[in-house]
Amino acid sequence: MLKLYRFLKPYTTYIAVIIILLCVQVLSDLYLPTLMADIVDNGLANKDVDYILHLGRFMLLIAAGGTLCAILATYLSSKTAVGFGIILREKIFTKVEEFSLHEFDKFGTATLITRTTNDVTQIQQVSVLIFSMMITAPLTCIGGVIMALQQDKELAWVLVVTIPILFTVIGITLKRGLPLFKVMQKKIDKLNLVLREKITGIRVVRAFNRIEKERVRFDDANADLMDNAVKVNIIMAVLMPAMMLIMNLTTVAIIWFGAIRIEDGTMQIGSLLAFIQYATQILFSLLMLVMLFIMVPRAQVSAVRINEVLATNLDIVDPEKIELASSERGFVEFKKVSFRYPGADQPALSNITFSVKPGELTAIIGGTGSGKSTLVNLITRFYDVESGSILVDGVDVRAMSQQALRAKIGFVPQKTVLFSGTIAENIKYGKENATMEEIEHAAHVAQATEFILGVEAGFDHEIAQGGTNVSGGQKQRLSIARALIRKAEIYIFDDSFSALDFKTDARLRAALKPEIADATVFIIAQSISTVKDADRIIVLDAGQISGIGTHKELIDTCKVYGEIVASQLYEEELA
Ligand SMILES: Nc1ncnc2c1ncn2[C@@H]1O[C@H](COP(=O)(O)OP(=O)(O)OP(=O)(O)O)[C@@H](O)[C@H]1O
User: Where, by residue number, does the polypeptide cross the bilayer (predicted)?
Assistant: First the structure.
């Protein structure tokens, strides 16, 4: 957790002020019982009303000062802790934004969300305690012992007996409680995972009548978390009364033995009262330390989880010496590229070599899982190659800045993603400063105008979270418009026409042609009609190129392509 506290730098002044305020508060708390003893022993005993009033006023002043310091310290502690939470969330978010797809796969979405929200909240809450108690508890404890001894040294043995008993109880509790605290976050992760899957996949859950099964899965995760929380709370429920019992027995012992000493004439009543208060302060400060010992390990687990994210070595980083691409635009070259997903036995791509130049349309076709998406994901450098190299405009993509590389590319992913916001804002996502004319033109080319103007608010129509209020085909067209508005040098359409009907597909491709005539275009498609006019077709089979050429060339030379054509002709004949 200390590692995380390096981010507290902007709050150094606040923390210094908090420490000073808390020291003043502790000193005032420690001084009050001595003043009270003075009133009892000298004021009350001598029936000196002036003395009582004078000291009483002084006590009020000290108490008011202490309270003011406590309020200010709590206010500043909360402000610092909340600010710290904001900094942590920002750091995690920025780091996660830099993650490659490999790192996303490694962590998983659910845990990344819990780490950014729940774990940060843990740290935030514990920080408030730490800021106040780390100073107050030890200072009160040490100061309390010194002040108690000043009142009466002989009674100190009561504390010598009580404190080890208190520590034994605390020790037993911590031994049982800590492991439970530590697994708490993991169980919250699990709950988030199940909940997320259930909510995002609600249509499938309903369609397959799995509501009951999913409910059981959720209930299991919920019950698991509850079991753990109940166990933790039972321990806490036992601990608190046990501590109070020890404290009350200590008071009884002090009064008992104190009374004997008063009877002997070796102690005054005021000193006994002050001693009781100091003993309570000491035990309370130990109680605060226990709270810290309980809360800190749980926050420690959260801190480790946050540090894991922050300390992740990024797979894909910009090189120290960035090479600028040549003035050539849109040249893409694969040189003996092989790639394997982490942990996979077989490479997803092996020995891929080809080159394309601007103005050319390259289609990629192949069976499912043959490596088509993987191939285009390597151009955008979502992953790095295992061997070989990919050059864009003559420069290895690993030597370019990711920003410069991706600025060249208009990417339409296989799984369409839209963001909540208006249709215009979603298209503008491709070019921040796009004008309304550019947005309308991109929508027109993507054959989206008709449906956009069909909805009441037109371009201002709000897209729901995840794009659930538009159809699959409409989503694809908006996603195409978002890529087109970039006026990119390289376009990648990963199976982007699959949800379009035959007529819209044909119209879109016709409108697209002049628009991207000068660019380098990659189209991944399943249908021969989409690829057959391409300048070059790459046929992939189990991660390897089984043929490269035009439709005409491949029909005679590539067996896999021949089979795809035959299967689709057969389907057309059947239709
Ligand atoms: N994130 C991943 N982690 C591990 N393996 C993956 C990952 N993504 C894809 N693969 C594997 O890599 C291989 C190629 O996948 P890829 O998505 O490139 O195929 P594709 O040809 O685009 O398939 P489809 O036409 O079904 O989209 C497949 O065997 C797949 O299981």
Answer: 12-32, 52-76, 128-149, 155-174, 234-260, 272-296
